[in-house]
Amino acid sequence: MELSNFARIGKGVITKSIGLQENYIEVFEVAESKLDEEKSGCAGCPVCQAKCRMREDGVKEAVEILESKCRECPQAVYTETYTEKKKYINEKNQFGYQETLKSNAIKLLLAYHFLDPNAYGLIEDISIKELAELVGCTPATVRASNLTLSEYGYCCVCESGRYDGCINIILPEYRDYHKTAAEGGRGYITMSSGMMQKILGLQGVNTLRLNLKGILEVDSSSCRSTEDPELASASATYKKLRGFLPGYCRRNVIIKALQKDSSIFSFDCSDKAVTFNISREFAQKNMRGAMLANEEAEIKSYIESLNQTLFMAGKTYIKGADPLADARLADYRIAAAGGYTLLALSDKDYKDLASMCVQYSRDMVRKAVITVYNDYTVHGTEIRNYGGIVRTVIRAMLSAAKEAA
């Protein structure tokens, strides 16, 4: 059993598994780049004068157009301004409530995301013995943890039916990871197999919970940072950290739990807060970039293999003439036709497909590619925006699945 190089894991799933925090207020600064009209010498500029008139008249669209012209001005000087904002956090409302998990159950839940779930979160024929070796526990512990995960609604587990000692798993929230906040999505983090191996090696449930909380905190900070989008540190007060930990976890207990392992973070502990300093290789932007490159290589390999099958069938083909070609076409779910042309994709097309693999899933993108081939390419239909039509097919697939559910 091998782990995928990268996986998407829902922020809501991680947050609920380590423990929902009590309601709290998050205070943070938002940076905004503003034109310094004095330093830029805007006095007397007709564009600036027109912008002021439009602003007084409340014509926002015109102001935005004129501001874009200001950005093209070689004399324009912009300065960073910072505004302090408050956000009221109620994690129970934000993520929904599920029971907190113990160490082995958390590790199993995270590991399942690295076992190539399909677009709907289904993972088939996974060996319990190999899972136990991966997590570092016994097969009996894996079975007990799976019962807990099923009881609490984190996943559904059943016997494989095809192989002894194997199970199938469904991650019910996986299909919603790609959704926007308006659609009910709660976001996800990108995790590499290297980070996952570090997490599997963490000892002690509080150490595990604090490291996962640190990953979430750093991700939230990097999303808000305009100066450093690769931000690899974030601070959290002891009061905030105690909000999701057992009652006995006061400052000294938290510090001891953090000092047990520094393979993912280095920690700076002051009197009031902990600063999580994550390795740059585990910073979210870097991991997402690496995941995108990985998915681009995977989709290129898939298209090359598909083209080999199409080349075997040739431009003129009679079904039944070559059993091997028939079998390979059926394996790719290519519809019967009188002949097949190869897929010729540009670098931009591959980048678009890789981006969709990250957003949705590799499995769904492959299905959409085959649908586009069967419905358009095989009939000689010209496609000007390949990525656009694949995305349209994916959205139709998701809509149909939602209606069927």
Summarize this structure as a short list of keywords or feature phrases.
405 residues; alpha+beta; three-stranded antiparallel sheet; 17 helices
For the biggest sheet, the summary is: 3 strands, antiparallel
Instruction: Briefly note the structural class of the backbone.
Output: alpha+beta
What percentage of residues falls in helices of 4 or more residues?
Answer: 40-55%
Strand neighbour order, sheet with most strands: 4-6-5
Structure description:
By secondary structure, the protein is α+β, with helices and mostly antiparallel strands. Helix content is 49%, strand content 16%. It is built from 17 helices and ten strands. The chain has a three-stranded antiparallel β-sheet. A three-stranded antiparallel β-sheet has the order 8-10-9. The longest helix has 30 residues, at 284-313. The two termini are 31 Å apart. The mean pLDDT is 86.
Quick gist of this model?
The chain is an alpha+beta fold and 405 residues long. The chain is 49% helix and 16% strand.
Secondary-structure blueprint:
Elements: E1 6-10, H1 11-18, E2 24-35, H2 37-40, H3 46-56, H4 60-71, E3 78-89, H5 91-95, H6 103-112, E4 122-127, H7 128-135, H8 139-151, E5 156-159, E6 166-170, E7 188-192, H9 193-200, H10 205-224, E8 233-237, H11 238-242, H12 251-259, E9 265-269, E10 273-278, H13 284-313, H14 323-331, H15 347-359, H16 362-375, H17 386-404
Antiparallel strand pairs: 1-7, 2-3, 4-6, 5-6, 8-10, 9-10
Helix pairs in contact: 1-10, 3-4, 6-8, 7-8, 10-12, 13-14, 13-15, 15-16, 15-17, 16-17
